[in-house]
Design goal:
Number of strands: 5
Radius of gyration: 17 Å
Largest sheet: 3 strands, antiparallel
Number of helices: 8
Helix content: 40-55%
Length: 212
Amino acid sequence: MFRRRTALSVSATAALLAATPLLAACGSDAHPGAAAIVDGKRITVSQLQAKVKDVRDAQAKSPQGGQMIMNTGRLSLATLNGMIFDEVLARGAKDAGVTVSRSDIQKWRAKAEQQSGGAERLKAMWLQQGVAPDEIDAMVRNQLLLDGVAEHLRADRRAPQGQQKLARALAATSRSMGIDVNPRFGKWDDQQVILGETKDPWITSEPAKQQV
């Protein structure tokens, strides 16, 4: 996904207030206060709001903040999409026996920073895609988990057939988790492993070419 894509593939205050989605404090009738239910686990609206605010606060502090905010206008949906996918990927990795160490994350991030022109440049690249600085390690972890699952499946992510094989496996995992999204945020597509009309959440395999 750093196609978030899980990617190793900004007056700002006024723009922030204008672009930040207003999320209702209530969820669906079946799951009050929940943005989604994933395998019986609640992703609450307040958790989603906190992640959106984290990104917006970071963007507002950037010299390019206004443009960043405009380019991530549907941040709440993209963020929820990522939160759900994180759960699916975690389950898929667990089932495949794939684990990632802190050292693995540090090595991958160091390489990405070198290729992108430094740590601050990498943070700015991620922030443009709606990823807050304190979420980068989590995104790197997901990239590594995705690579590990693909390797377990013997699926070459550089080839269409490999991508399809990985997608089918994650789709099966998604279906098994009974994902139920609050209608105000759309509907989860098990086949595509994506939330409604949000963009492709898949992470690219090239650290310097990040998206979300």
